[in-house]
Design a protein that fits this description.
Layout: E1 2-12, H1 17-26, E2 30-41, E3 51-53, H2 58-67, E4 72-77, H3 85-95, E5 97-105, E6 110-111, E7 114-115, H4 121-132, E8 136-137, H5 141-148, H6 158-170, E9 175-183, E10 186-192, E11 197-203, H7 212-224, H8 230-248, H9 260-268
Parallel strand pairs: 1-2, 1-4, 4-5, 5-8, 8-9
Antiparallel strand pairs: 2-3, 6-7, 9-10, 10-11
Helix pairs in contact: 1-7, 5-6, 7-8, 8-9
Bound molecules: 3-hydroxy-5-(hydroxymethyl)-2-methylisonicotinaldehyde (PXL).
Length: 270
């Protein structure tokens, strides 16, 4: 499959575009990139990082692609730092997708009850516009709360999760995959298409690391585009994250991301 991913390049820090590319390759897909910005590092835990916004470059790149008749089987959006970019993304969705092409929205904008540094209401509104026309959205619990105007709860009752799933689906998307669902010391994801719920949980690993949400989404998208069942997809994604954390946590110098490369390497060196 030919996927276009629109998210930032955080040069150092193992997240967004730099993890989507190797992970999606691992599932046999070609990934084209439209970088939303270039940052020296991601914005979680580093001080004085640099940001170069690429909004002005987007219409030029898109118009060149259109002149070359370039089209995509899937569109996958992640972290977007400038709200002017949502119109460009929706234009791609409307005019550059192959028949049956799928639109995946990871509204990567918040975690642990808070928006990421520098992101505000206009990003939430733009992400919501994309959720209206998405085939799959992949929010974590915090993002789900911002998208649906629900107050964030540290403790997730079954009723809270079910309310979030209904409200997310009501945004317009065909499918919801809610990540970071925690129950009884376990953590995982729950998928909902309005009829069926599929939930996969694994023992929660500590600590939590930056970028795991981006890796999780990329594994899920890689599997869905390979026609795997939702159960197989969520099993693979949760194991991938558990294994990545286990590869990382003995190294106290590596707190900014996970060593997912070792997981891929071990899969293929067997
Ligand atoms: O992992 C999500 C992400 C992506 N890109 C940038 C970020 C973050 C999370 O903080 O800062 C630039």
């Amino acid at each position: 499959m030919k996927i276009l991913t629109v998210q930032d390049i955080s040069c150092y820090g193992q997240c967004s575009t730099t993890v989507a590319l190797p992970v999606l390759s691992n599932y046999g897909h070609e990934t084209v990139i439209l970088p939303s910005a270039i940052l020296s590092t991601h914005t979680g835990g580093f001080k004085n990082f640099t940001v170069h916004d690429l909004t002005d470059e987007m219409p030029k790149i898109i118009s060149h692609w259109k002149s070359e008749n370039i089209t995509f089987d899937a569109l996958y959006t992640g972290y977007i730092g400038d709200a002017r970019q949502f119109d460009y993304i929706l234009d791609i969705k409307n005019s550059m997708m192959n028949k049956g092409g799928l639109f995946f929205v990871d509204p990567a904008m918040a975690d642990h009850g808070k928006m990421y540094y520098g992101l505000g209401e206009e990003i939430v509104n733009g992400m919501r516009r994309m959720c209206e026309v998405a085939d799959y959205i992949l929010p974590n619990i915090t993002e789900a709360c911002f998208l649906t105007g629900t107050s964030y709860q540290e403790v997730q009752t079954e009723e809270f999760i079910n309310t979030l799933l209904e409200r997310l689906l009501a945004l317009g998307t065909k499918n919801v995959i809610l990540t970071g669902y925690e129950v009884g010391g376990q953590i995982g994801a729950i998928a909902y298409d309005g009829k069926n719920k599929v939930c996969v949980l694994k023992d929660k690993q500590i600590p939590s690391y930056h970028g795991t949400g981006d890796i999780f989404s990329s594994v899920i998208i890689g599997n869905i585009l390979n026609n795997k069942s939702m159960k197989e997809t969520l099993d693979d994604a949760t194991s991938f994250i558990v294994d990545s954390i286990l590869e990382t946590r003995s190294d106290s110098t590596h707190g900014y991301g996970v060593k997912y490369e070792q997981v891929i390497y071990k899969k293929y060196s067997k």
